[in-house]
Amino acid sequence: QPxxxxxxLPDVHExxxxxxxxxxxxxxxxxxxxxxxxxxxxxxxxxxxxEAISYAxxxxxxxxxxxxxxxxxxxxxxxxxxPKLVVKIQEYIDKGFIQESRDVEQLERFKVLRLLTTVHGVxxxxxxxxxxxxxxxxxxxxxxxxxxxxxxxxxxxxxxxxEPVSRTEVxxxxxxxxxxxxxxxxxxxxxxxxxxxxxxxxxxxxxxxITFPHQDGLERGFLRRLVDRLVKKxxxxxxxxxxxxxxxxxxxTTWANRRASLGDTLxxxxxxxxxxxxxxxxxxxxxxxVDLVVAAWPHWGPAVLGWTGSTQFERDLRRHAGKLCRLxxxxxGIRDKETNEHVEAKTERDCFRxxxxxxxxxxxxxx
Length: 367
Ligand code: TTP
Ligand code: MN
Ligand code: MN
Ligand code: MN
Known about the structure:
By secondary structure, this protein is of the alpha+beta class. Helices cover 45% and strands 13% of the residues. Residues 253-263 have low confidence and may be disordered. The chain binds thymidine-5'-triphosphate and manganese (II) ion (MN) (3 copies). One manganese (II) ion (MN) binds at residues 194-195, 203-205, 207.
């Protein structure tokens, strides 16, 4: 029977948008042990598949648990934690480690899939196929994908792009981008989102959101002009530096009087950016992945909210919005599900208010 201490512990909500998720969290060592198992499911099934999502959801519940889990009873009382995971948590409590997690990390398939999926354009499906065809190294991969010119061109940036990016460097890249933004069109506001905004010590890439405060429509066509300029300046390589460029608003009127379409997203450019060495301790320029995202001012709230993450936080936010508020939330805007009309939300706080949620600061969204 559960002990009285367990009964006094707070309830943990099943959705991350009702929890605080700090980094590190009270059960960080347990979470670190579960991470390879979570990644293993991503690598086998893909991030969008139920097997992977249910595991990520369970790990996220542990991240959002505000007390140290000291018994299997406590674990069982948490939402979204199945019996198999309870056994693993018990093992961790008893031994301080989870054997299956160590075993997975030693699997050749795990190690190779992890390596292959670091290449932009190689998802879990292609990686598994390559592995089954005998691919073990990045050289093998390049030999196997002779017709994938995008991937071969990308490989010359690959080693640099694997390095974690410090917060100072993220800010430095933002400053370089800001300089060029101001040359294209003055008056822009830039916001660093993604893991940086959630307080992570290092980031995998640099997520920069751009808007023109108190203006609506000024941002149209801006991203293409910015990318053209970055290419012309040599800050984004002409040969394969633009991984993708999507413009959502090519045919739209201003946001305020526009009816939302379903496929609507923000203008975004995923690029490889040359971070110049001058002003740093480095002796050479390095390549960094930068996501440039442009949002209209009336979209700014959901854009920042959607690009801050974490992925699990966004997933649970959408679930809550759809179920309880009859709202469709995406980084391009918030829509009423019945009327399909956009609901204006200039700030993140407006979004939380519309979704009837208590404010959660970005550094507590590491779900
Ligand atoms: P990422 O940059 O992929 O992840 P991250 O910043 O949390 O971590 P990392 O240090 O590895 O970069 O995504 C950041 C947020 O952007 C995430 O919440 C999802 C969102 N996003 C979109 O909304 N649309 C997209 O097309 C992509 C790629 C990300
Ligand atoms: Mn990021
Ligand atoms: Mn990103
Ligand atoms: Mn929109």
